[in-house]
Amino acid sequence: MGFVNDLENQVREYLAGDYEVSEITDIPSVDNVSFKKKAKKLNLCAYSIDLRNSSDLLFQHHKQTSGKIHKAFLTVAAKVAQKYGGKIRSFQGDSILAFWAGAYKKQITTAVEAAMVTKWFLDIEFSKHFEKYEKLDFGIGIDLGEVYILRAGISRDANNNDLVFIGKCVNFAVAIANQARSPYHVEISQDAYDNLLEEMIYDNDGNNMWSNSTIEWNGVKYPTKLTSYYSFLRR
Asked: Which residue range forms the structural domain that includes residue 140?
């Protein structure tokens, strides 16, 4: 019963009392967060990208072909997010979760620019490569807010522990990404829109690039903004 007792003691420890919470300004790596009853807190811009109908790929194509499509899609999404300063913290099959610090409008605007550049790559520039197998559809969702970061899993086992990001904006960004689809691949929360710089609101002719939409989340309808626009990569 040693295993049961040890595990129960850990559960009791983690659930009892308060955690020590420290405010930070930069997105931490796994090594920067302790397994102890400690948490980090900061304002983040959460960015989720999700491949539409990925399960159907397994039925429409050979497993190897489905793997090729997933790997190419995730590579583009990850490299663009990274190029624009995003910190990737989760790969989940057909989706990526990335974060930008969300204290300033410039940081939030950069996250949205990354989304619109990703649309350009996947939907336009590299579409010819994917269309040999399948025309991609995908959604990108963005929200911002306060996030608590914990380290969870099995200590002293690098393959079996990771950071957990807890905050409404994380779940909301994922929900928006699950809703967004062609031609409106990029959808963001009203809070994210309200914190954009004008360069990411209006096109070169002064037209607003965003349309009004809503999402039902936890039984409540929330306003969102969506766009079919894209941005070219900054060379």
From this structure: 38-227
